[in-house]
Amino acid sequence: MFNDKQELNDMKTKIDLRQYAAGQGYQLDPKGSWRGTAVMRHPATHDKVIIKRDTDGHYVYFSVRDDRDNGTILDFVMQRQRVNFGMARKELRPWLGVAPVSVPVFDALPKTAKDRMKVEAAYARMQDANTGHPYLEKERFIPGAILALDRFAGRVRIDARGNAVFPHFDKDGLSGYELKNTGFTGFASGGTKALWLSQEFPSDNKLVLCESAIDALSHAVLFPDNHTRYASIGGKTNQQQPELIRAAAARMPVDSQIIAAMDADAEGRKLAELVRGAVELTGRKDLRFTVQLPEGFKDLNDQLRARPLPLLPYRPPEVPSVA
Hints:
This protein has helices at about 5-15, 15-25, 75-80, 85-90, 115-125, 135-140, 145, 215-220, 240-250, 265-280, 300-305, and strands spanning about 25-30, 40, 50-55, 60-65, 70, 110, 125-130, 155-160, 165-170, 175-180, 185, 195, 205-210, 230, 255-260, 290. The strands form 2 sheets. Strands 7, 8, 9, 10, 11, 12, 13, 14, 15 and 16 form a 10-stranded mixed sheet that branches. Strands 1, 2, 3, 4, 5 and 6 form a 6-stranded mixed sheet that branches. Helix content is about 30%, strand content about 20%. The chain is α+β, with helices and mostly antiparallel strands.
């Protein structure tokens, strides 16, 4: 006997929305994707969607361009083919077996809680700051050329209010984001603090951990090195961060150096010791741990702003818009 409810559930759970989208011409954006999240773009229509898996196992998506364009694979079909519910089901029935067209194979997509989806939806609609950021450049003296590096691609954004936005990642992907601006510090509503991380490359041999992402960017300006990756804890630590620091250190290639570049105060010394302990927990004897303090200043950004060197010309960024 035909089970109508079972078929609908199978369509939502057994048809990989990423594969269906690929069959419609969408392409995966590797730089914009991370664990638990697939960003896909259509080269002809310029449509951009975020694909995840809900806690019930359903593949779900949301459009970066339209808040109303979201839901399961059935909604995806109805929105893009302009068909009704019945026609969408007819379209998807061949996909319940072997895909009717050649599509790529993707790694399993972990399930994501709804509150994290809300955080990610808000973050996805922010603009990458690789074209510049007024607050970071004019007040924090972070040159636009640093923000444009591949090292920081997708790791600094700007929201509609002009805040600098720094995404935090845990073992499941994007967990939240910091907000920084003149006289203002905030964190994503419903998000969880983890680690801000730069991009990681196989040739890296150093990991610099700072209290803030701004200090990490300042380190990149003061001590440029194409083989250094960066991380920050965003202030006081929570219970999950020591393990995330250990994991970040454990991902480093053989014979790497782990540098704790915290503030030059009592709290900074405590954080440096926390990093030391996390590195020791990796059990790797090849990792070299060192402490680096700002030279005559409280933090690295103070040191950067006091540097008597000409700054690169400020380039006003484009008005924030949906990418």
